[in-house]
Amino acid sequence: MSQLAQRVLTAIPLLIGLLLLLFVAPLQVAVWVTAAVMVVGAWEWAAFLGLRSVPARAVCGAGMALLLAGAGSLVPEVVSLPLLLWAALGWWAIALLWILRYPTPIPPVAAAVAGVLVLVPSWLALIAILQVPAQGPALALLALSIIFAADIGAYFAGRRFGRVKLASQVSPGKTWEGLIGGVLLAAAVAGGGGLLLGLSPVVMVPVGLGVAALSVVGDLTESMFKRSVGAKDSGQLIPGHGGVLDRIDSITAAMPFFALALSWLGFSTG
């Protein structure tokens, strides 16, 4: 079986599970399930700190669980969610500069801080989107659809037209042609999906462009950390996709931006 076929077969039950989580499961179940995904992500991220043993990784996972619990209780009662999301976008700007300067040594402490900044704000953003009155699950699905479209468009455009390397120092397979294909498909999905939800394509197409651009930064950031420890995938939990981080890397960067965009459009996100 080809890798693409395996990815598709694995994606089908994941997609069904996602739809059930968004539209059938109670919000609290979605909170716990997505938090569990981030905890597994922290387990995998521990490898970027040079931690390989099960006890060390378990400590990282437990630490992430505590951070998520603390963040969930403090936002928005104590800490402003939009302010936190703006800070997250600031981190992703720093990550982009980090990518451009790679290869440079990544100290374990820096990798640990980066892991927190990657996982916690994206979880908070997703939960905030899910809590938007009436349209929360549909908006979350739109955000994920834009991200997936960027990934799919980049994959096929890169395979067909890819010539000029995008960031060979961290991800040799990515090309500018793939990036353009992904951004265009993401913009189309954002415009079309926005129409279905009563949102103007004039507004949603730029949002889609921003989501697509940040999704690439998230992807390249994880690739940089994987390359720093000589790993091809973050794990082997998902057949054909690698680890959890390999599946959510784009989401972690794009979700805070999408949540902020919704607040600019007048939606209540906390």
Q: What is the overall silhouette?
A: globular
Provide the number of structural domains: 1
**DSSP helical segment count:** 9
How many angstroms does the end-to-end distance come to?
Answer: 46 Å
* Rg on CA atoms, Å: 18 Å
How much of the sequence is in beta strands?
under 5%
Order of helices and strands: HHHHHHEEHHH
Mean pLDDT: 92
Explain what you see.
This protein has a two-stranded antiparallel sheet. The protein is globular. It is an all-alpha fold and 270 residues long. β1 and β2 form a beta hairpin. The chain has one domain.
Topology:
Elements: H1 3-23, H2 27-45, H3 54-74, H4 81-101, H5 108-130, H6 136-161, E1 165-167, E2 171-175, H7 176-196, H8 201-228, H9 244-264
Antiparallel strand pairs: 1-2
